[in-house]
Amino acid sequence: MKFPRGFLWGAATAAHQVEGGNINSDAWLLEHVDGTVYAEPSGDACDHYHRYPEDIALLASLGFNAYRFSIEWARVEPEEGEFSLAQLEHYRRMLAACHEHTIKPVVTLHHFTSPRWVAARGGWESAETARLFARYCEHVAEYLGDLFAIVCTINELNLGIVLQQSGFLHSDDAIVGSRWRRAAARVMAVEPEMFSSFPFCVRARSRDVLLEAHRRAAQALRSANNCAVGMTVAMLDLQAVPGAEDVRDRAAAESQDIFLQAARADDFIGVQCYTRQRIGVGGPLPPEPGAEYTQMGYELWPDAVEAAIRRASAVARVPIIVTESGIATDDDPRRIDYVQRVLSGVAQCLRDGIDVRGYFYWSLLDNFEWLFGYGPKFGLIEVDRQTQRRKLKMSAEWLGRTGRNNEI
Ligand code: BGC
After folding, report:
1. Does ligand 1 have an atom closer than 6 angstroms to the CB of 166?
2. What separation in Å is there between the alpha carbon of 241 and the centre of ligand 1?
3. How far does residue 197's CA lie from ligand 1's centre (Å)?
4. How far apart are the C-alpha atoms of 343 and 350, rounded to whole Å?
5. 112: CA distance to ligand 1 center in Å?
6. Which of these, 89, 240, 347, 362, could form a disulfide with 244 (CB 3.0-4.6 Å)?
7. What does DSSP say about strands 66-70 and 390-392: parallel, antiparallel, or unpaired?
């Protein structure tokens, strides 16, 4: 099947996971505190901060026409109100490199990490952060907006809720009382309840702040230039066992619909999907016996992406971009098989008239997978941890070729 003209074929990364040395961010701090929940520190990551020219050139030579990456707030505004022109210039060079290679940049303005000073002022639990985030976005738009094509404000606004619903994160109380949160607060010389980092923020306090931040940021970006603006949402394919439909619907309303409905005011919605979640009357159920798992410990379920696109499109009623979908595995043929199955789901959605504008594989490089460190391998490109040398996997060549041919 031919894909629509102009369909975006890309790969995605996030600043903290690939750049290296993101020392003014809350994540860097949390990687180093007493009682840290990170398996290892991010360190130099993939040194993409310096090596982006070769990485973008490689992406283009493979046949891709788009690159999703993030701008790091902790670099652009390392201390409150101190905006770094040098860092803005760095991202300007990155954007220019994309345009030189006819790669459409899809830029995310917040991908999980915030400056340490933001985290120490209550982070996303504090209403003030919506204003601070919008101010940062205004600065970015002013300096870089002319080179933007598509902008995602905040990556996975609903992350905290999804992680708690699936049982991955502990309760709000456990987060507030955790050793690492107290240790980080000590470093920043604030009370423990003042330190809050995006992936672990107390959901009851943060949901409306995040939605307000998105609304204000989108307004600032739209008034500075005419790029397409949206948010990205983490979507599990929530599947009810017979009798648990109401439980599933309540979970979907809380973790997806509120955000998808807010996206009705946007130019698109970024769908990010990795697996399904079975739901019983008592809540989340483990995978069925015999299920296949990825290196992340969750079920391999490529059909989830099609279901997520359909649901996002039905509720948000705006164009869809699959801003992330991927698999952590050392078995590269399995990756190709996974993406092939995901893409047939995308094709089925297109046939049914759903406006899907692009597919971004997560991730371009084997990178820093947050709490899991460098263990899981999501990349199309392998990175030697000693030398930083890049090595193409078969999947990179296969997906690049698919993109160049614009068909599956
Ligand atoms: C995040 C990425 C992460 C990926 C794989 C997504 O939820 O946006 O930063 O690496 O999942 O776990």
Report:
1. no
2. 27
3. 16
4. 10
5. 9
6. 240
7. unpaired
Q: Which two tokens stand for residue 329?
A: 């595995």
Pocket test of ligand 1: the residue of 324, 338, 363 to mutate, having most ligand atoms within 8 Å of its CB, is 324
For the segment(s) 8-403, the CATH number from 3.40.50.1820, 3.20.20.80, 3.40.50.10490, 3.40.50.170 is 3.20.20.80
Instruction: For the chain, give every domain's residue range.
Output: 8-403
CA atoms within 13 A on the CB side of 191: 3
Substitution candidate for ligand 1 out of 18, 154, 362 with most atoms within 8 A of CB: 362
Q: What is the pLDDT along the chain (408 residues), one digit of tens a residue?
A: 999 999 999 999 999 999 999 999 999 999 999 999 999 999 999 999 999 999 999 999 999 999 999 999 999 999 999 999 999 999 999 999 999 999 999 999 999 999 999 999 999 999 999 999 999 999 999 999 999 999 999 999 999 999 888 777 777 778 888 999 999 999 999 999 999 999 988 777 899 999 999 999 999 999 888 899 999 999 999 999 999 999 999 999 999 999 999 999 999 999 999 999 999 999 999 999 999 999 999 999 999 999 999 999 999 999 999 999 999 999 999 999 999 999 999 999 999 999 999 999 999 999 999 999 999 999 999 999 999 999 999 999 999 999 999 999
Burial 64-81 (b: 16+ CB within 10 A, else e): bbbbbbbbbbbbbbbeee
Decide if 156 is catalytic.
yes
CB 239 within 8 A of CB 264: no
d(CA 68, CA 56): 11
Model pTM? Answer: 0.98
C-alpha 14 – ligand 1 centre gap (Å): 9
Residue of the nearest CA to atom 10 in ligand 1? Answer: 369
- Is any ligand 1 atom within 6 A of the Cβ of residue 14? yes
CA distance 92 to 281: 51
